[in-house]
Amino acid sequence: MNPIYIARAPEVAARMLGDEMMIMSARTSELFSLNATASAIWQAADGRTPLADIVEGTLCAGYEVTTEEALRDAVELVQNLSAHGILQISDQPIAESTP
Amino acid sequence: MNLDMDCRDAVKRNLVADVTRSYGRVRIMAHGTSMLPSVFPGDILIASRCIPADLVPGQIVLCYRDQQFVAHRLVGKIENHLVTRGDAVCGCDQPFREDEVLGEVVLILRDGYPVDPSPAWWHGAGRWTLRRSRMLGRVLVRLKRLQSSKATRAWRSSWKQTQVAGLDRL
Fold first, then answer.
1. Which residue of A has its CA nearest to B10?
2. pTM: predicted TM-score of the whole model, two decimal places
3. Domains defined along chain B, listed by start
């Protein structure tokens, strides 16, 4: 399986509330709320770290879950976030963009 | 008082302000009846970032103060402050500082259809009457609700929360 790189979409604003991340898309003005697990992935989405490494470093360390299972759930989540336009996915590292 | 909900609402409002200031455009749903007959509760206001000095009386401006949004019509300027008033309200708001102005309302979406936010000729008469009769405001809102079709209600409810794994769309 090719590595997956993820980066936060450029036109979003985000604020943390407890362990929950609230995100607003400037493109659609939709508001989203990420739970603790999804927030951890979102915060680690720097465009350079492969998703597998993020999962191993942030999720597997904190939850009793196998790497394969966590990665499968994480892929589903990032595809979901990407479909809503708040996360970018690529099989190449993603360059940082400025608003 | 539900502090958790209050915090969430405060964060949501701050995000709306962040997005408008950073990216220049936001869509926000109107509540209240202070802008009848120009804006009905449930209308979607599309606001665009602007230079406060360029605003002219008659435009609807979106302001943010004390964690509250106000979209009222500009009626004048005093030094560096903007004086606004709701179309259906008798008195003016406390003047807004220029840094409290998020943008001007460039379009209103009512039941999915665009409406021009500039004052129409009949608004003058409507405003005059609404300022003198709260009952008329309530009747107008009730009539508007009756007029809204099921499809409209579905369109509006799409703005409300749906849940996806790990992700809540609010």
1. A17
2. 0.76
3. 3-141 (2.10.109.10)
